[in-house]
Design brief:
This protein has helices at residues 33-53, 78-91, 119-129, 143-155, 173-185, 200-216, 231-235, 237-240, 260-268; strands spanning 4-5, 10-12, 15-17, 23-28, 62-68, 96-100, 134-138, 159-166, 190-195, 221-225, 244-246. The chain is an alpha/beta fold and 270 residues long. The strands form 2 sheets. An 8-stranded parallel β-sheet has the order 10-9-8-7-6-5-4-11. The chain starts with a strand and ends with a helix.
Length: 270
């Protein structure tokens, strides 16, 4: 796996993260193999179509495919997990593959049959598989577990997104800054926070904070305002220094995601 380190960011599969260009992330989801790979096929077709529309601007390509594994019913079967990752890797061999398992607290799709699931049963299998490029680690697991997960990922040559989501409010600037600093200290390669704005002021505040922290932090930053009110934060990443922006193809994984084709058209016109 190509993995070129820089002072602030890094490059995987030709996509540079942390250079001022927001890389586009699209989630792939499904409860069953049939649902998951049907969605994967649709995403593959659409990103190929979008690539052909903008052949001269690689910054407009979908860079990251995020497998939202908390939607997958066979996630606790190690052999099945690796087999599924292998198939996704084949489909998206030219894209960065991000593994994300969201807990219910952080907006995940946690069903009753998965209520006793332990993340430490899943992550070692994923990390050792050699099939993903990045792993998302939730800040909600606590400082010790964040640091341990980041260390294990780095030992396996993987990059780490440490993420925090607040689906009810936009915390004060000082609280967001403290979380970002903690993520950075504990080993994150990308610092991600997503919040719920109550009004346009909250969205503007988030965007201004993204600009500030992108300059102050040593690692790439993305602060997202979710929902309809926060859409501006998803399309103005180049102005704020955000390293990622999340779009959808067919299914959204968080409030306020817009279709990749619409996002790319908006980015093209900036």
């Amino acid at each position: 796996m190509e993995n070129i380190s820089g002072e602030r960011g890094f490059t995987i599969k030709g996509f540079e993260f942390g250079n001022g260009t927001p890389r586009i992330v699209v989630p792939v989801m499904g409860l069953t193999d049939e649902e998951l790979f049907d969605h994967a096929s649709k995403i593959r077709t659409e990103i190929d179509r979008l690539d052909s529309l903008y052949p001269d601007d690689p910054n407009l390509r979908v860079a990251v495919i995020e497998w939202r594994a908390d939607y997958y019913i066979d996630i606790l079967k190690p052999g099945k997990l690796v087999e599924t990752l292998s198939r996704l890797r084949d489909i998206f061999s030219d894209r960065v593959l991000l593994f994300t398992f969201r807990t219910e607290e952080q907006g995940g799709y946690l069903r009753p049959d998965m209520a006793m699931m332990k993340l430490h049963d899943i992550m070692p299998v994923v990390g050792a598989s050699g099939l993903v490029d990045m792993i998302d680690v939730e800040a909600a697991v606590g400082n010790y577990n964040m640091a341990r997960a980041a260390l294990e990922c780095h030992e396996n040559g993987l990059k780490v997104i440490i993420s925090y989501h607040d689906f009810y409010r936009t915390p004060h600037d000082s609280e967001i800054i403290e979380k970002l600093r903690t993520m950075e200290i504990l080993g994150a390669d990308i610092l991600k926070i997503a919040v719920m704005p109550k009004n346009e002021f909250d969205t503007r505040r988030v965007m201004e904070l993204n600009t500030r922290m992108s300059a102050e932090c040593f690692k790439p930053v993305v602060i997202i305002a979710m929902g309809e009110t926060g859409i501006l934060s998803r399309i103005k990443g180049k102005q704020t220094g955000s390293c990622l922006t999340f779009a959808s193809i067919g299914q959204e994984s968080a409030p306020g995601q817009i279709e990749a084709a619409d996002l790319i058209a908006l980015l093209k016109n900036q």
